[in-house]
Write a structure and sequence with these properties.
By secondary structure, the protein is mostly helical. It has one domain: de novo design (two linked rop proteins). The chain contains four helices and no strands. The longest helix has 28 residues.
Length: 120
Amino acid sequence: MIKTYKDLKVWQKSLDLVELIYQITEELPSKENFGLVSQMQRASVSVPSNIAEGYGRQSSGSYAQFLSIARGSLFELETQVELCFRLKYIRKIETEKIYTIITEISKMLTVLISKIKTKN
């Protein structure tokens, strides 16, 4: 039973993604601290934050909107990860691990958004 946003598997998995992104960005070149590092950390943190904020809203329309914003942040992060891979900042194995988690979260958000919209 879902009593709070913390019970949502998608929120929990999103926090796992944030941890992974912080670990990986620690290894990026220091010249990227105000570029990719900052952007990747903000995009990753945005995902669980928007899930939580949307959950706290009083309307299902607002909730669905915040979940959509979370999905947008996921795709932003995916783009930044791809750039890191192309710049040879991260290896293929790290990239694939992140992509797998992003895909899982994206699917979970899509299902949740769909359920919320069909309730109306």
